[in-house]
Design goal:
CATH class: Mainly Beta
Strand order of the largest sheet: 1-10-7-4-5
CATH architecture: Sandwich
Low-confidence stretches: 17-21
Largest sheet: 5 strands, mixed
Strand content: over 45%
Helix content: 10-25%
Shape: globular
Order of helices and strands: HEHEEEEEEEEE
């Protein structure tokens, strides 16, 4: 009887781990999306001195989430830099990211905002499977 329970548990775990990869959803954040959802997204880009463009990206987080802002800077097909900014948002609020990038590198560069649920377990916050990834092409917002 215990062997049957163990097999059922293993089969259930296998189903859950197999379907977990399908829980990731990717969408594009375009200027049109920002216009349609002004409370959800604010994206500004301003030219500064010396060929830099300063970006400010804010996303409203309606519930506690584990969020990661990921900057990918490319020169053509070559990846020059990646930088990830993880955070736990424990209350309803927003996550804001600030960065500057050379205007020469904007065309192929992007920022990704990922959000997933988390649980508090044994004194630590633990992200759960399933993520919404919002991709922002910087050239779409550049001045």
């Amino acid at each position: 009887m215990n062997a049957i329970r163990l097999l059922i548990l293993l089969a259930l775990l296998r189903c859950l781990t197999t379907s977990a990869s399908a829980l990731t959803v990717t969408d594009q954040v375009t200027p049109e999306v920002v216009k349609q959802n002004p409370k959800a997204w604010t994206i500004t880009a301003k030219k500064t001195d010396g060929h830099l463009v300063a970006f400010t990206i804010t996303h409203a987080v309606p519930r506690p989430r584990y969020v990661v802002g990921s900057l990918r800077i490319r020169d053509g097909e070559h990846l020059l830099l990646t930088s990830d900014f993880p955070a736990y948002v424990h209350e309803e609020g927003s996550a804001t990211y600030y960065f500057s990038i050379s205007s020469d590198l904007i065309a192929n560069s992007e920022f990704e905002f990922s959000a997933s649920f988390f649980v508090h377990s044994h004194g630590e916050d633990v992200p759960l499977p399933g993520t919404v990834i919002s991709v922002i092409r910087l050239k779409d917002f550049a001045p």
